[in-house]
Design goal:
Number of helices: 15
Low-confidence stretches: 330-347
Number of domains: 3
Number of strands: 5
Strand content: 5-15%
Strand order of the largest sheet: 2-1-3-4-5
Oligomer: single chain
Helix content: 55-70%
Order of helices and strands: HHEHEHEEHEHHHHHHHHHH
């Protein structure tokens, strides 16, 4: 038994990736998620609209973070600010003043309602008047499910070819690295497209989630997100030597997206040192975009940031996957061609 224990320790010492996951990763996760796992909202981004906006701002409590002031806007302008996602609260400071609250920002809405007695006007919750958790979570869960399926399944693609011994055959075929990557992604992309339609329709029907926005706009957002997560899976596959390593890396990528994307914990409540990580995650932008389209009915010009960032991520991640495949696989394939040619000449 003792020789077996010694052998396992030696093997574990050589497997630095597993050793780092067992020792370093728990400390990193505890630190990062300890600062992220908060429901408290200290500052609420607020827009003040109406001819009495300047006077009203001076009466607001310190927790109200005024991000814009419009002294000529109307009641409809205040509502449009929320529809576009430019603030979580819009106060109309005119005749019959009212405080409009974005119900899709669940925790901010709840935080504001707790402070309602200190506000200078009655409160009206828009888009999600019942403050239903399902209305807020289902658009985010659609992205999480697709990220999980896309990243985990495609992360095994190149690794499976390497395990089956067919990777070298791909490298010597008259195919460019981008052709191989596209060929790997295309079947999963088609299946994932069907999946996203099914889970979106199921979420709308089962949980009574509204769909107030544009269907083509949601389709564009979803397709860009699928390209990112599928490309991420292929990139992980090129970085891994075994299926076990691929699954480990995929879970390491997925866990921050669950907790740091704003799906569960609001980004505004996270510490500044952790919040920036959320802005590097593709799920963050899908959550923002899907809630905007489904719940608020946001127009396309209000969603240029999530759409643009996802498009940029798709280009960078797919480019990285192509580069890794070309660097690690193509040289090996070329060497094999040379070896076969030498053998043929000598024969």
């Amino acid at each position: 038994m003792w020789p077996m224990i010694v052998k396992e320790f030696r093997q574990l010492r050589r497997d630095r990736r597993t050793l780092a996951m067992m020792i370093v990763m728990p400390l990193i996760l505890l630190t990062v998620f300890g600062y992220a796992a908060r429901f408290d909202v200290d500052e609420i981004p607020t827009a003040v609209v109406g001819e009495q906006a300047d006077a009203l701002v001076e009466q607001l409590p310190p927790s109200i973070d005024v991000v814009s002031i419009d002294t000529v806007g109307s009641r409809e302008d205040a509502q449009e600010v929320l529809r576009r996602g430019e603030a979580a609260v819009a106060i109309y400071a005119g005749p019959d003043p009212v405080v409009y609250v974005d119900g899709s920002e669940l925790f901010m809405a709840q935080a504001l309602l707790r402070r309602a007695p200190t506000l200078p006007a009655p409160v009206e919750v828009m888009f999600n008047p019942d403050l239903s958790t399902a209305v807020v979570m289902v658009p985010a869960l659609i992205g999480l499910i697709m990220a999980f399926i896309g990243t985990i399944i495609t992360s095994l693609g190149v690794v499976r070819e390497r395990a089956d011994g067919t990777l070298e055959q791909l490298s010597v075929m008259p195919l460019k690295p981008r052709d191989v990557i596209i060929g790997k992604i295309a079947p999963y992309f088609l299946v994932a497209t069907v999946d996203i339609v099914l889970i979106t329709v199921a979420g709308l029907l089962v949980f009574d989630v509204p769909f107030r926005g544009s269907v083509p706009l949601f389709a564009l957002l979803s397709l860009l997100f699928l390209l990112v997560v599928l490309g991420l899976g292929v990139l992980i596959s090129t970085l891994s030597r075994t299926q076990g390593e691929a699954i480990q890396l995929a879970f390491m990528v997925m866990l921050p997206q669950i907790l740091l994307s704003g799906m569960i914990f609001p980004l505004s409540s996270m510490a500044a040192g952790v919040r920036w990580i959320g802005h590097l995650l593709p799920l963050t932008y899908f959550v923002t975009g899907s809630r905007g389209i489904l719940v608020r009915g946001s127009p396309v010009d209000a969603l240029l940031v999530p759409l643009g960032v996802l498009a940029l991520m798709a280009v960078i991640i797919l480019g990285g996957a192509i580069f890794r495949f070309h660097r690690d696989v193509a040289p090996a394939g070329a060497a094999e061609v040379v070896e076969l040619a030498v053998e043929g000449a000598s024969a």
